[in-house]
Amino acid sequence: MTQSLPPSSSPAGSSSQGCEITVYQAGDRILLVLQGYILSQNAPQIRDRLQQLMNDPSCHRLDLALGGVQFIDSTGLGVFVGFQVMARKQRIELRLLSPAPRLLELLQTTNLVSVFQILSGEPADELRRELERPELLLA
To answer: pTM of the prediction?
Structure first.
């Protein structure tokens, strides 16, 4: 399933952009592909979608593909940190896959690289190839 979240102002004040979420599931593994801007205006919808997926008792691994994230504000980072805490409590493995360079730099600057398991390069690409298939698209 692909879900487009409401448009919001971009941080640079240019064209309005939102966030698109596509979800794939294979057994106990879920892949969320996020693209666009993660801002305070659409963070509640992202939080609700993550909450819904993590509440599924079959979810044991949740991978967030972040290569298409153009910008994330502090509210968006807070959503990810909150879900990392929740994932640990629920024994769900939460991983960030191939964050966009600017996002990776932000994670490093804020020392959040020590909070998240981050996969890049071939390991992340292989996971995406495994799960990002039309027949695994969640309706």
So the answer is: 0.86
